[in-house]
Design goal:
single chain; alpha/beta; Cobalt-precorrin-4 Transmethylase, domain 1; 12 helices; elongated; binds S-adenosylmethionine; cobalamin biosynthesis; NAD(P)-bd_dom_sf; 4pyrrole_Mease_sub1
Length: 408
């Protein structure tokens, strides 16, 4: 049988502290060096020249550079060699030397003559994926991408089988569109046994979960004499202690008006490990989905995110509305639909221009997204007339008037 017809024998080389020689400082070296460095190899580059990226690795002390051409003896002490000069004769001589010293050697110019092939590799959460197809590197890369992507987003189910220590992931699910959860969030969701979910956030993702996953609506956890939040904290703790992989799926970001810290604190007090996965907050993404940037050069140099769930004249309010009224930038209000009339009047009373443009974006990033425009003077009445309902993000400021194709 032809040597090239038999499959390669896959192996993971443990190169830490071992000498690896790379001949040639061009594009091939540029692509191979980072993973050799990441593997802890003692990398020696032999080449008269190098690309700027390779030089940067040399400058950073990650690679030793001998600025000259290949010469006999370079591979004598190597464990592994990458031969990639632009001189075919030098490549042939180097691979002959590698053969003589029994050094595994990849060759950029002649895969048939090489004694080793570089697989298409990728990593996700401690898993290294390496794919060899023999003669079709594009196919190797495509298979690698599919596997890594599947591991990252959880569509390729590969649960951990080591004994679990109790833990909970507080996952920010983003504003509602299921595509706007993070890759890590989606993977943890795919690995969950129990998901405790809020009303807001990417609820469509819950339909995709396999039948064995217990999905609990946080709003429906019975709380008897305890507070609703306390009941949620207890449910997280109980399920984690029962050895389940628990995901607390929250709308937007867990730490933006999401009570995420209260849950993290309760878990810490119960001795349960907690991972916080940030999410895309509705405070920025919902305006963006409606075409409103919260900052714009020459228009707004700041944006302030404020909760409107407490009326401005309520003694328990922690918001300095008078100070906010003096700002010129963008105000983003969450949980403010009910009180927008009172908030607008307060801002005007403290000096914010009554003509300031305002947009209300309801159910942003979902199929039901709707935008209602007004000014600070009219927004209370407009919101009522238009029947605006939560969830909505209210944006106040000149950024609201910006339009595509109109640079002003
Ligand atoms: C309790 S807060 C949670 C915020 C969330 N942690 C975040 O970072 O987006 C709920 C408020 O977020 C806003 N909100 C969340 N998702 C929204 C969406 N898809 N469209 C409009 N507003 C949204 C509304 O103002 C809603 O009342």
């Amino acid at each position: 049988m032809d040597r090239n017809d038999v499959p390669a024998y896959p192996v993971g080389l443990r190169l830490s502290g071992r000498r690896v020689v790379v001949l040639g400082g061009g594009q091939v070296a540029q692509r191979r060096l980072p993973s050799l460095v990441a593997a802890g190899a003692d990398v020696v580059l032999v080449s008269p020249s190098a690309t700027p990226s390779v030089e940067a690795m040399v400058d950073a002390g990650e690679v030793r550079w001998e600025r000259r051409r290949y010469q006999q003896g370079d591979l004598a002490d190597a464990w592994y060699a990458v031969v990639a000069t632009d001189d075919p004769q030098a490549n042939a001589a180097a691979s002959a030397e590698a053969e003589q010293h029994r050094v595994w050697c990849v060759r950029s110019d002649d895969a048939d003559a090489a004694t080793a092939w570089t697989p298409a590799t990728g990593r996700s959460e401690g898993v290294t994926v390496a794919v060899l197809t023999g003669s079709d590197p594009r196919r190797s890369a495509a298979v690698r991408d599919a596997v890594v992507e599947g591991l990252r987003d959880g569509t390729l189910a590969a649960p951990h089988h080591r004994a679990r220590t109790p833990s909970v992931a507080l996952v920010g699910g983003g504003p509602g569109d299921p595509d706007l959860i993070t890759v890590r969030g989606r993977r943890l969701l795919a690995e969950a046994d129990v998901v405790i979910a809020d009303r807001l956030g990417p609820r469509d993702l819950l339909d995709e979960l396999p039948p064995h996953v217990e999905v609990i609506d946080a709003a429906k956890i019975p709380y008897g004499r305890a507070m609703a939040q306390e009941a949620i904290n207890n449910a997280l703790i109980e399920h984690a202690k029962a050895g389940k992989a628990v995901v607390r799926l929250k709308g937007g970001d867990p730490f933006v008006f999401g009570r995420g810290m209260e849950e993290a604190q309760a878990l810490a007090e119960a001795g349960i490990a907690c991972t916080v996965v940030p999410g895309i907050s509705s405070s920025i993404s919902v305006p963006a989905a409606a075409g409103i940037p919260v900052t714009h050069r020459g228009v707004a140099h700041e944006f302030t995110v404020v909760s409107g769930h407490v009326a401005p004249d309520d003694p328990s309010s922690l918001v300095d509305w008078a100070a906010l009224a003096r700002l010129h930038g963008t105000l983003v209000l969450l949980m403010a639909v009910e009180r927008i009339g009172a908030i607008a009047r307060t801002l005007i009373a403290h000096g914010r221009d009554a003509d300031t443009p305002v947009a209300i974006v309801q159910e942003g990033t979902t199929a039901a997204q709707r935008r209602v425009d007004a000014t600070l003077a009219t927004v209370g009445r407009t919101a009522a007339d238009e029947g605006v309902r939560p969830p909505a993000v209210i944006v106040i400021g000149d950024v609201v008037a910006l339009r595509l194709g109109n640079r002003g």
